[in-house]
Structure to design on (467 residues):
C-alpha cells in the first residue's frame, strides 16, 4: 500500500546524523557504514549493524527507526513492526513512522491494527489523501479476511452466498448476483439487506416495478432480535466500528463474520467517499483504476493510471500498474514498451519479463518472446502463465519437443481446454500419436463440461420476478 518515500529517507538520514552525537568513535563508524549500505540498497547487510547499535544504545529512537527502515526495505515486515511501534510511541507525531507501521501491519494481515494507526493519521491530517486511501484499503482487508474465515469455516453457508452476490454486483455480474441473493433468501428469508440488494439488481437491469416490490419487502422486515442476532443489530443501527473486533480462532459464528465483512465494507466506502471529496490526487486515481480493473474496464483503468502519473511522474509503482492495465486492455504494443522501460530499472523481474514476452507472442513475434519468457522462468520456474506462453511460442517456432514440458506445467491454468488442445498438437508434431489422442480426449471432455455448466448457469441465473 505505502512505499518508502523521499520524506522517510530524509528522516532516516536525519536520525542517523542525530544518533551519531551519542555514540563512541567505533559506534559512529559503524553507523556511517550502515548509512552507506542503506544508500547502496544493501539493506540486509545494514540490519545486523543496527541491531548491534540498538542493543548497545538502548532508548535511542533514531537508531531503532533506522533498524525498522532497513528491515522494512528488506521485506522483513514482521521484524520491523515492534521497532516501528517503539518509534511511534516515542515520537507520536512522526507521520512517516506511523505510515510505515500501518503499511507493515497491512502486509502481514493485521488490518484492524493498521486501521487504528490510519484513523489516527486521518485525525492528525484530515486532508491527507494518502491516509484516507490507506484507511479504506485497511477496511477492505478486514472485509476480505472476514469473508475468507467464513468461507473456510462453512463454504456452503448462505452467508457466503450473500457476500459472493455483493461481489458480483461490484463487478456488474447482475445475473449471477441475482442467483446468489435468491439462494440466500431460501435459507435466511428475514436477513436484513438482501431484499434491498435484490431491488438494486432489478433497478440496474431495467425492472423498476420488481425493484419496488423488493423494497417493500425490505421495509416490512421485523427488527432483528438483538439477543439472538447481536451483530445484525449493531449493523442495522450503524455501529460499524463495533463489529471490527471479533474473537480469533473458532469463536465467531458465520453470522458474526458476515456482519463484520459488511461493516468493514461500509467503513471502507466512507473512507473512500472522504477521499473523493479532497482535491485530485494520485490516490483518488489509484482507487478509480482499481475499481475499473475489478469491473474489467481496463481501458478506463489505463486512463486513471495515466492521470495518476501526470500528478506524480516517475512513480515506479504507478508505472508498473499502468503496464499491467495496458496488458489487460490488450494494448500489447504499449504494454511491451512499458515493460521494457520497467525492466531497465528491474531487470529479471519475473512478472515484467513475462508481460514483455507474452505481449510479443500476442504480437505474433514468438522468436523475440522466448528470451523474455526464459528470463521470467529463470526468476520463477513455477510461473504457470510463463510456462504456457513459452510452450505456445516454442510450438509456433516448430520446437514441439521443447514446448511439451512447458505446456504440461501450465495445464492447471486450462479452464477452457485450449492448453490441452495445444499440447495434443505438440505431441502429434513430435510423433507421439498415442499421447496426442489421450490429451485431445481430455480437451473434448473440458469443452463438453464447460458447455454443460454454461447452460446450467444460464438456466439458473435468469433474472425473474420476485417470489
Amino acid at each position: 500500500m505505502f512505499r518508502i518515500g523521499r520524506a522517510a529517507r530524509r528522516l532516516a538520514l536525519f536520525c542517523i546524523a542525530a544518533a551519531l552525537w551519542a555514540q563512541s568513535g567505533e559506534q559512529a563508524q559503524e553507523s556511517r557504514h550502515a548509512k552507506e549500505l542503506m544508500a547502496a540498497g544493501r539493506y540486509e547487510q545494514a540490519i545486523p549493524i543496527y541491531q548491534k547499535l540498538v542493543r548497545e544504545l538502548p532508548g535511542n529512537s533514531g537508531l531503532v527507526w533506522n533498524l525498522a527502515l532497513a528491515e522494512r526495505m528488506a521485506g522483513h515486515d514482521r521484524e520491523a513492526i515492534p521497532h516501528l511501534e517503539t518509534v511511534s510511541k516515542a515520537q507520536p507525531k512522526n507521520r512517516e513512522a506511523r505510515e510505515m507501521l500501518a503499511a507493515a501491519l497491512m502486509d502481514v494481515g493485521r488490518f484492524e491494527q493498521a486501521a487504528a494507526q490510519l484513523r489516527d493519521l486521518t485525525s492528525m491530517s484530515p486532508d491527507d489523501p494518502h491516509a484516507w486511501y490507506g484507511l479504506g484499503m485497511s477496511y477492505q482487508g478486514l472485509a476480505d479476511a472476514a469473508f475468507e474465515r467464513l468461507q473456510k469455516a462453512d463454504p456452503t453457508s448462505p452467508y457466503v452466498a450473500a457476500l459472493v452476490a455483493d461481489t458480483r454486483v461490484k463487478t456488474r455480474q447482475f445475473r449471477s448476483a441475482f442467483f446468489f441473493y435468491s439462494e440466500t433468501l431460501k435459507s435466511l428469508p428475514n436477513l436484513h439487506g438482501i431484499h434491498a440488494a435484490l431491488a438494486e439488481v432489478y433497478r440496474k437491469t431495467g425492472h423498476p416495478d420488481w425493484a419496488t416490490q423488493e423494497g417493500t419487502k425490505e421495509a416490512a422486515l421485523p427488527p432483528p432480535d438483538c439477543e439472538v442476532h447481536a451483530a445484525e443489530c449493531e449493523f442495522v443501527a450503524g455501529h460499524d466500528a463495533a463489529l471490527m473486533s471479533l474473537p480469533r480462532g473458532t469463536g465467531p459464528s458465520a453470522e458474526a463474520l458476515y456482519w463484520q465483512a459488511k461493516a468493514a465494507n461500509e467503513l471502507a466506502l466512507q473512507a473512500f467517499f472522504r477521499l473523493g471529496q479532497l482535491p485530485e490526487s494520485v490516490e483518488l486515481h489509484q482507487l478509480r483504476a482499481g475499481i475499473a480493473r475489478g469491473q474489467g474496464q481496463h481501458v478506463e483503468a489505463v486512463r486513471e493510471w495515466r492521470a495518476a502519473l501526470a500528478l506524480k511522474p516517475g512513480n515506479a509503482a504507478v508505472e508498473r500498474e499502468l503496464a499491467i492495465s495496458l496488458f489487460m486492455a490488450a494494448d500489447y504494443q504499449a504494454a511491451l514498451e512499458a515493460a521494457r522501460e520497467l525492466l531497465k530499472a528491474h531487470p529479471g523481474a519475473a512478472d515484467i519479463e513475462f508481460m514483455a514476452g507474452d505481449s510479443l507472442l500476442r504480437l505474433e513475434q514468438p522468436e523475440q518472446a522466448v528470451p523474455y519468457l526464459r528470463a521470467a522462468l529463470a526468476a520463477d520456474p513455477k510461473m504457470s502463465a510463463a510456462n504456457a506462453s513459452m510452450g505456445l511460442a516454442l510450438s509456433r517456432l516448430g520446437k514441439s519437443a521443447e514446448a511439451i514440458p512447458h505446456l504440461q506445467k501450465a495445464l492447471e491454468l486450462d479452464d477452457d481446454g485450449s492448453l490441452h488442445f495445444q499440447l495434443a498438437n505438440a505431441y502429434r508434431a513430435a510423433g507421439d500419436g498415442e499421447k496426442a489422442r489421450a490429451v485431445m480426449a481430455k480437451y473434448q471432455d473440458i469443452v463438453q463440461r464447460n458447455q454443460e455448466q454454461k447452460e446450467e448457469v444460464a438456466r439458473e441465473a435468469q433474472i425473474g420476478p420476485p417470489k
